[in-house]
Design brief:
Elements lengths: L1 E7 L2 E6 L9 E10 L3 H7 L10 E7 L11 E4 L9 H4 L12 H5 L11 E5 L3 E3 L6 H4 L7 H10 L6 E5 L3 H12 L3 E5 L3 H9 L4 E3 L6 H9 L3 E6 L6 H8 E9 L17 E4 L9 H11 L1 H6 E6 L3 H10 L4 E5 L13
Parallel strand pairs: 8-9, 8-11, 9-10, 11-12, 12-13, 14-15
Antiparallel strand pairs: 1-2, 3-4, 3-6, 3-15, 4-5, 5-7
Helix pairs in contact: 1-12, 5-6, 8-9
Bound molecules: zinc ion (2 copies).
Length: 345
């Protein structure tokens, strides 16, 4: 099979690797859609990665000894390889499991954990079934397109009465814009890149502020009367969280989704903010809510997905990400997507 790997600064290569084999509860998924996340930053920084990516949807081709899945099931793959037994894993917070499995060492295989590849290996409980009425491309939103910000919106309880402020309109932030709109909230966003600001507006953001030119906290207070009710920080910008906190009303809620090292806030006590650190969403308890969100978002997802390319063109796709002129990009490891999965093979 083919897979993409980052082998040096500015270099992503498509290489040949062995197809992984199912074993015990580890199933093999034929990856039909591999959404791109932040892997391009590793290429920029020359961080080698032979197991690239953490987002995938596809079809089960070998169910091993799984009693949850059968060959042909259409599925979305969740990140990591949680132990499956600790209090975090069993409650659905497996992202935070301190005891991750090494599924390659367990099975004596060299390869099989990358999503930028044609096949991957996954514990069956970290795979969720995509309902028949949802396309694989839309189902892919259960990964990072919607996942982290869905987790944030759930934890903050954002609904139609809220003003939501989204900091950063990269693929994750755009997912927050779409979901805020889908939940009926009034959505504002913060973004400096003109392409992404325009895309956020087309997705339903009422206003997109440029923090280099505008006093965002002052403007948000002016437009809302008191500040946004909830905010999601996805930008990773040095002052992103601070500026967002200053734009949120007293006793409002703020989620940090971006990975940016230490986070700076203004004094928290006067504002009485509820602050959440959110990595992903709880697919054990909230899968049905995720699929309802995906159905309701509908066409907005197609607007958010700006590029679809075969895996072989991964370098071109990362060039596009480097320039920031994209929403979500989907890679297709097997070419055009067959929605029926294996049923038509
Ligand atoms: Zn665990
Ligand atoms: Zn991601």
């Amino acid at each position: 099979m083919i897979a993409a790997e980052i082998t040096g600064k500015g270099v992503v290569e498509v290489v040949e690797r062995p197809v992984p084999k199912a074993s015990g509860d580890l199933v093999v998924v034929k990856v039909l859609v591999a959404p791109m996340c932040t892997e391009f930053k590793k290429r920029q920084n020359g961080i080698e990665d032979r197991s690239l990516g953490h987002e995938a949807v596809g079809v089960i081709v070998d169910a091993g000894e799984s009693r949850r899945f059968a060959v042909g099931d259409r599925v979305a793959v969740m990140p990591h390889h949680g132990c499956g037994e600790c209090y975090l894993c069993t409650s659905g917070d497996y992202m935070h499991c301190p005891d991750q499995r090494d599924v390659l060492a367990e099975t004596g295989q060299e390869y099989g954990t990358a999503t930028y590849s044609q096949y991957l290996l996954k514990p069956d409980w970290l795979v969720i079934r995509i309902p028949d009425d949802i396309s694989l491309e839309h189902g892919a939103m259960a990964c990072c397109g919607f996942g982290p910000t869905f987790g944030a919106l759930e934890r903050m309880g954002v609904d139609a009465l809220d003003v939501l402020l989204v900091s950063g309109c990269g693929p994750v932030g755009l997912g927050a814009v779409v979901q805020g709109v889908t939940r009926g909230a009034r959505v504002f966003a913060i973004e400096t890149h003109p392409y992404r600001a325009e895309l956020a507006r087309r997705l339903g953001a009422e206003r997109v502020f440029n923090p280099l030119e505008e006093d965002v906290p002052a403007l948000v207070r002016e437009l809302t009367g008191r500040g946004a009710d909830a905010g999601i920080e996805t930008s990773g910008a040095p002052n992103g969280a601070k500026s967002l906190a200053l734009s949120i009303r007293s006793r409002g809620r703020l989620s940090v989704v971006a990975w940016a090292g230490d986070v700076t806030f203004p004094p928290l006590v006067p504002q009485g903010l509820d602050i959440f650190g959110v990595w992903h969403w709880n697919s054990l308890t909230l899968a049905e809510e995720m699929w309802r969100t995906v159905r309701k978002a509908g066409d907005l997802i197609d607007l958010m997905i700006t590029h679809v390319l075969p895996l072989e063109q991964v370098a071109d796709a990362m060039d596009i990400q480097d320039r920031g002129v994209c929403g979500k990009i989907l890679l297709l490891p097997h070419g055009a997507v067959d929605q029926a999965g294996l049923q038509s093979d």
